[in-house]
């Protein structure tokens, strides 16, 4: 199978590198500046004892000519519209597209452009960032990839795709309920994002102060209530696991959104928060803490983008 990874950043670079290492036929669609850096330094995965340098196939939008079998979309929400147009020549009638983005609204964008039949749901769980050298830095041990049919069930094509994408270096799962998985991940990442961004610290920083863990639990309850109202309740065991992750004393865990905010970069505010609280309003779910996080992040976004 010919696999095209759109973007070679924190997620695309990480999962794409695992696939390259496993001998899969992988090409990265990159913009010229990233292409130049990757040609000079290679695609490097560092952190947690890893120090891998790969020299993967790269292509820029102007060079894309023929369809790929699989397109993994790993850009941030703000870059999606442009990326969708850039990648269009690589999407043929049998191409399967798998997005990595947090949130849900990107499915509408991809479905509208390529047709729902071509688009799977996807969730990636990984803690990576691009460091000052442009390398992919692992900041936590998590590494998981879940995909599935938007309509649910396990189709022959996702079973086949599963065999291709299930390689060493991350946990891979085909889900019969990927929309539920995406909602539950969304509730989790909105919770972790709100906790770390509002309090400007890691989970351990927040848990260390009186009221910190209670605050985290209240945020998690709000996000879970939205997912539940949308028809995707978070099972109790998963809620307990999320709560444990978000309240653990001494934990260095942050969210990718926190890392963006801390670095003074734009964040996926509307995609992860604006959309969630708008859906909450439409379903008459109260989300005062998520509303506050949204406002807080909108101010950040305004400051760094204007
Ligand atoms: N980082 C993490 O730990 C996690 C992130 N996520 C989610 O994954 C998604 C992707 O995030 P992440 O990987 O962190 O983002 P990054 O910013 O690290 O990587 C995105 C990459 O996409 C590239 N890009 C943007 N537009 C195009 C284009 N038109 N053509 C080719 N490349 C393009 C950017 O390249 P350029 O250098 O040219 O700007 C950049 O390298 C987000 O929705 C995020 O929320 C999910 C789980 C964990
Ligand atoms: C859940 C987590 C922390 C890791 O996948 C994430 O998605 C993020 O930081 O954006």
TrEMBL record:
Pathway: Cofactor biosynthesis; (R)-pantothenate biosynthesis; (R)-pantoate from 3-methyl-2-oxobutanoate: step 2/2
SUPFAM superfamilies (UniProt xref): 6-phosphogluconate dehydrogenase C-terminal domain-like (SSF48179), NAD(P)-binding Rossmann-fold domains (SSF51735)
GO cellular component: cytoplasm
Pfam family, one: ApbA_C
Signal peptide: none
GO molecular function: 2-dehydropantoate 2-reductase activity
EC number: 1.1.1.169
Domain of life: Bacteria
Database matches in InterPro entries: 6-PGluconate_DH-like_C_sf (IPR008927), 6PGD_dom2 (IPR013328), ApbA (IPR003710), KPA_reductase (IPR013752), KPR-Related (IPR051402), KPR_N (IPR013332), NAD(P)-bd_dom_sf (IPR036291)
Keyword list, A-Z: NADP, Oxidoreductase, Pantothenate biosynthesis
Domain Ketopantoate reductase N-terminal: 3-148
Reaction equations catalysed: (R)-pantoate + NADP(+) = 2-dehydropantoate + NADPH + H(+)
GO biological process: pantothenate biosynthetic process
Annotated ranges, domain Ketopantoate reductase C-terminal: 177-298
Family of this protein: Belongs to the ketopantoate reductase family.
Function: Catalyzes the NADPH-dependent reduction of ketopantoate into pantoic acid.
Designated name of the protein: 2-dehydropantoate 2-reductase
Organism for this UniProt entry: Amycolatopsis taiwanensis
């Amino acid at each position: 199978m010919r696999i095209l990874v759109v973007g070679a950043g924190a997620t695309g670079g990480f999962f794409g590198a695992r696939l390259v290492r496993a001998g899969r036929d992988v090409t990265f669609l990159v913009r010229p500046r990233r292409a130049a850096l990757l040609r000079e330094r290679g695609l490097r995965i560092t952190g947690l004892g890893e120090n891998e340098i790969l020299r993967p196939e790269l292509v820029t939008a102007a060079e894309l000519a023929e369809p790929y079998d699989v397109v993994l979309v790993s850009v941030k929400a703000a870059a999606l519209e442009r990326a969708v147009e850039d990648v269009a020549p690589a999407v043929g009638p049998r191409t399967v597209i798998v997005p990595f983005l947090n949130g849900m609204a990107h499915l509408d964008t991809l479905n509208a452009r390529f047709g729902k039949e071509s688009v799977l749901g996807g969730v990636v769980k990984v803690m990576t960032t691009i460091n000052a050298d442009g390398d992919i830095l692992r900041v936590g041990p998590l590494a998981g990839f879940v995909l599935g049919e938007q309509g649910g069930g396990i189709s022959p094509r996702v079973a086949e795709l599963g065999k291709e994408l299930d390689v060493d270096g991350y946990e891979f799962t085909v889900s019969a309920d990927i929309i539920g998985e995406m909602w539950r991940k969304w509730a989790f990442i909105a919770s972790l994002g709100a906790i770390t961004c509002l309090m400007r610290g890691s989970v351990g920083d927040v848990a260390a102060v009186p009221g910190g863990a209670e605050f985290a639990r209240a945020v998690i309850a709000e996000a879970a209530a939205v997912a539940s109202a949308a028809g995707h309740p978070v099972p109790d065991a998963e809620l307990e696991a999320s709560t444990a992750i978000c309240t653990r004393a001494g934990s260095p865990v942050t969210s990718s959104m926190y890392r963006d905010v801390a670095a003074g970069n734009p964040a996926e505010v509307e995609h992860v928060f604006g959309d969630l609280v708008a859906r909450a309003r439409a379903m008459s779910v109260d989300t005062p803490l998520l509303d506050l996080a949204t406002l807080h992040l909108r101010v950040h976004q305004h400051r760094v983008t204007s």
